[in-house]
Amino acid sequence: MLRKGLTLAAFGLALVAGPAMAATTQAELKDIHWSFEGPFGKFDQVQLQRGYKVYREVCSACHSMNLMYFRNLGQKGGPFYDPKYPNPNENPYVKSLAHDIQVGDIDQDTGDPVKRPATPADKFAAPFPNEVAAAASNGGKAPPDLSVMAKAREGGPAYIYSILTGFVTPPAGLTIPAGKYYNPYFPGDLSGSWTGSPDHVPQGGVIGMPPPLAPNKVTFDDKTPSTVANQARDVAAFLAWAAEPKMEERKQFGLGAMIYLVIFSVLLWFSYRRIWRNVAH
Amino acid sequence: MSGHSTYEPKTGFERWLDMRLPVIRMAYDTVLTFPTPKNLNYWWTFGGILSLCLGIQIVTGIILAMHYVPHVDYAFNSVERIMRDVNYGWLVRYIHATGASMFFLAVYIHICRNLYYGSYKAPREVLWILGCVIYLLMMATAFMGYVLPWGQMSFHGTVVITNLFGAIPVIGPSITTWLWGGFAVDDPTLNRFFSLHYLLPFVIAGVVVLHIWALHVPGNNNPTGVNVKSKEDTVPFHPYYTVKDGFAISVFLILFGFFVFWFPTALLSPDNSIPANPLVTPAHIVPEWYFLPFYAILRSIPNKLGGVIMMFSAIAVLFVLPWLDTSKVRSMRYRPTIRLYFFIFLLVCLVLGFCGAHEPAEQVIPGVTTFTLGDYDLNTMVWLSRVAALYYFAYFLLITPIMGLTETPLPVPESISEPVLSHPASGSAQAAAASNKG
Ligand code: HEM
To answer: Which of A65, A230, B317, B352 is the most buried (most CB within 10 A)?
Structure first.
């Protein structure tokens, strides 16, 4: 309510003030709710599994996740954690997921570079050998590593979701360079490529990523409809988990620590009252 | 330390040791029996809280240093590895990162407590100056710590801050090169900052010892600002203040835990989760919140050298405060006029912090263009910081000295135990004495 009021007030002022200054703009992120919000929020394991599938089948063609190992998928709190296999390296499902991917290695006899199926101890393989190659194949902009993407942007998973679902046809009057795409959620300053009224420069910027998602691009193993919104939501949740894989452990630990501290504080308060009861102060 | 010792060695060993190295006596006198004014309020618990903060930073820091790799190619990933693969590494790292903010929160409250109750005045000037030294060392330590994870803010913040030294005439550029260990912020810079970040907390611990020594010579100030007159005015530190400080520490830890467990990234910039890239400068380079008021002062001056001088003066002025304050009354409880100016001062510090978080050219009230003076738009962060910075310096350099000479303080109680109001006779005499001073 208050926020709305303030926005309206600011908007009113902006109208009075005339032409807005040229600056980086960005549309307000989509409001989306996550199972892992709040002090008790947890990741939805099935959602993480779907999210991994979207990453694996779509995003991994361009984006690396250099901080991720296959074993992470089977660790406590991970998408494929199975209490039967406390050691994720022994989790058969994780093993088979890893086995589907080829990683580089060195032949132990000849020293030649070879490819072999990955094991849970291996890192996610990067799609490009280096950043120059990544940029060269993507119109000059290298796709950034996604390991901690959910921590590296204001808004985190809501930002990722908004970007992925935010590709729209550019308004008439906006010139978009070849190989670039208009996205109102990508921070940018479009005043230079806008031929319309300077009071109504579109929000957002041009991004070097083509819209990666499309309906039914990924087949979900459960009954979840494979819409762009669902794919985006699930991959954003997966990236949120990848950026903070210890979040559940942290909140759980915090709850215990807080209960302990509150009880301890109450006890200290009563000791304080008792010790000081005969001192006028 | 000030000759009040009541320690009596009980065992043969204690007697033997007491003749040779009276450490038990020292601990007994400083921690257990030290006579402490009985009217200290909760603002006095922050000394204990600060000691705990230092301890927490040192313990978590040593554990982090076991896993951290001070190299431009590995630093970022080594910090992430601590969060992902080290047992409870996320806990240690988030406590350390949040702990820096908590440390500054506590030190700012501690400093404001001293300003309000006049604790920096005679005979506590050395105590106060040692506190200012600790604060400076903390700023240096936190700045260098922030460089270590080698994210975008780490790198570009270092570039901005180290470049400030380049503004010094003649020797400036050489100093910058010397700080960097080369011609740009690079691996040697990261290495030396890590080395110093490890060293300085122990220097702080040493100065803290001196600080407590300097405290125990005159003893604590108290909310009335009146000197301790008799034994009735004090209680032994233990158990009275161990339990009160203990309670306050426990409540402080609840706030601390709130950030560590639920909002660990609230105090960290998202840009610092992007590995440092010298070729890409973040849109806004903003330091940690605890540096923002000084950052605003720095940027309020159009000339770089001038800005650097003003920024350092803002801290330097604290060192001479005991000699700027002309009032004979310590506590602002009895100084209603300056109390008002002091509350404005606190507000001004927050305003400076607010300005520091925004771009100088940004408008304070968005959209309003009517506050212009010739070519200047007064409705901008830079002008707001100029006004605020002016007040900041005026508070110390004009208001404090003048107010002490011109104001009429309220009657001050005769002693801690006997508040003036219960003694109307002595009360009016005291009031007369106080107003004569004015
Ligand atoms: C006065 C006490 C201290 C303060 C105010 C302080 C402050 C900081 C800050 C602000 C950071 C960056 C936090 C982040 O974004 O991760 C940091 C990182 C670090 N500090 Fe400290 N620190 C202190 C003591 C120590 C000590 C005593 C050690 C080692 C013995 C230490 C070792 C480290 C290491 C290895 C890092 C990098 C890991 C990381 O970024 O989390 N610190 N410190």
So the answer is: B352
